[in-house]
Amino acid sequence: MAPVAPASSLALPRAERVTLNGVAYDGLKRALLSGRLEPGAVITLRQLADELGTSMMPVREAVSRLAAEGALAVQPNRGIVVPALGDGDAADLWDLRIKLEGDASARAARRADTAGIERLRALCRAVETAAAAGDLHRVLACNSDFQFAVYQAAQSPVLLQLIETLRMRSVPHCTAAIRVLLADRPPYYARSWVNHAALVEAIAAGDAPAARRLKQADLREFRDFVDSVRKQAS
Amino acid sequence: MAPVAPASSLALPRAERVTLNGVAYDGLKRALLSGRLEPGAVITLRQLADELGTSMMPVREAVSRLAAEGALAVQPNRGIVVPALGDGDAADLWDLRIKLEGDASARAARRADTAGIERLRALCRAVETAAAAGDLHRVLACNSDFQFAVYQAAQSPVLLQLIETLRMRSVPHCTAAIRVLLADRPPYYARSWVNHAALVEAIAAGDAPAARRLKQADLREFRDFVDSVRKQAS
DNA sequence: TATAGTTAGCTGTGATCACAGATGTCAACG
DNA sequence: CGTTGACATCTGTGATCACAGCTAACTATA
Question: Which residues in chain B are contacts of A92 at CB distance < 8 A?
Fold first, then answer.
């Protein structure tokens, strides 16, 4: 027993050690989720290791982890590649994303606390101001943050992890369409930002069915846009 | 160009190289899915490496992969542990399992081919004969094979992978209850096998809603059994 | 005897080296 | 000129070694 009472119990946050392995994993994960890696892009363990300034070892484990989740594919003696999705896999991914991200939105409406809702409102405003300024790159970044904030508000780590896994596989499949979005600025997509505001209000009001419906409609619209761009390109 | 036509195109199955890394991964995965590893069990990289007769390296990557999926947890200098689920995570896992495994069952009813249905019937009979013989260990093994055969019949690799991930985290949480099942043989669980037959018939008939309903009822029953055993133990 | 300080033995993490296999280049041969 | 062969190069895979950190047992002290 300590002779004195623990100094206000301190509540120190676990002091989690940073590991190069984890740094490499997070970096690759962010690159995938933000659309910086396109399907077919080949990368190399040694190249990534040089980029991080470490040896090949931490990168290996990070790549192995991503490969286990299907986000990357290692080809025995030919490098690491971001897998291109077949039509079947792409459809499956969209179906599951629509289902699970809809679930997460509905769940957020049921379980979000006031801090989470405030955070959502702030991120929603950030998206709107970026859109007003015409900075589409920042719109996309804030938009991604906003969406994950919704899923975090659902307070289900398991569900959040599944959504991240699905997105890591799905986002590269959408990069070509996003590039078209940045270049041509089709008029339809401006509506998406007002959809976000409606989603936030549904969550704040605790209206789970509306939150699910709004998120799923948004996702289906985006899916159709991606598919139309891909069809046009082929 | 080859001087002769490719001999009936061969369709060689990619000649996939076996890698010690993959062997270790599959072994650990099977151990988790079959319930041979319980929460709190600590294992060691060197111990696993000795068991496989290899160096520590392949085991490291396999463990990293499982850790990325949440099936194992590495503690910096204290070994690898099968994580014990908190109440919240356990409830989340059950909800997602009920949802996704129900989806997969419904999808199997829609997309199963005759070969898949025949395989399901055979595995269902295998469960019944094992149950008639009183060999509960074999019942559990055949039961697991049967369930995964259903999910494979859904013909969605993405969905199958998600279900495997969820199960790897969920099964260790159920081992204590399964041990009770093997020892006490409570009467209720005999009904589960006839439920299986009904599920197969629903799939064969293409009745997706019925397939979903049967699978979800089965899972909820099992969840309640596991929870009752855990509550009784504490 | 009880407690604090120390040390020895584990652990995972990271680096470095060695190796088999696939690829693409280039020269020699038809 | 077209084809085939060998070779240099680069890939991931696996092994071995070195190291920092945490545990737990042990010892010396009050």
Answer: 156-159
Residue A60 CA, nucleotide C14 C1', distance (Å): 11
**What distance in Å separates the CA atoms of residue B8 and residue A153, rounded to the nearest whole number?**
56
Provide, as residue numbers in chain B, all residues whose Cβ is less than 8 Å from the Cβ of A157.
89, 92
d(CA A25, CA A65): 8
The full set of domain ranges for chain B reads 20-81, 87-233
Helix A56-68 to helix A20-33 angle, to the nearest 10 degrees? 50
> B14-59: per-residue pLDDT in tens?
567 889 999 999 999 999 999 999 999 999 999 999 999 999 999 9
Residue nearest C11, CA–C1′ metric: B77
Q: Is B15 exposed, middle or buried (0-12, 13-18, 19+ CB in 10 A)?
A: exposed
Residue B7 has pLDDT above 60, yes or no: no
What is the homologous superfamily of the domain B87-233 according to CATH?
GntR ligand-binding domain-like (1.20.120.530)
The dihedral over CA atoms of A137, A95, A91, A155, expressed in degrees to the nearest 10, equals 50
DSSP three-state, residue A69: coil
CB atoms within 10 A of CB B196: 23
In tens, the pLDDT along B58-81 reads 999 999 999 999 999 999 889 999
SS percent in chain B: helix, strand, coil, step 5: 75, 5, 25
Interface of A with B in 173-232 (CB under 8 A): none
- Non-local (6+) Cβ contacts of B209 within 8 A are B106
The residue among B39, B40, B68 whose CA lies nearest residue B171 is: B39
Share of chain B above pLDDT 90, in %: 75
Nucleic chain C contacts, protein chain A, residues 44-63, CB cut-off 7 A: 54-58, 61
**B20-81: CATH, from 1.25.40.10, 1.10.10.10, 3.90.550.10, 3.10.580.10:** 1.10.10.10
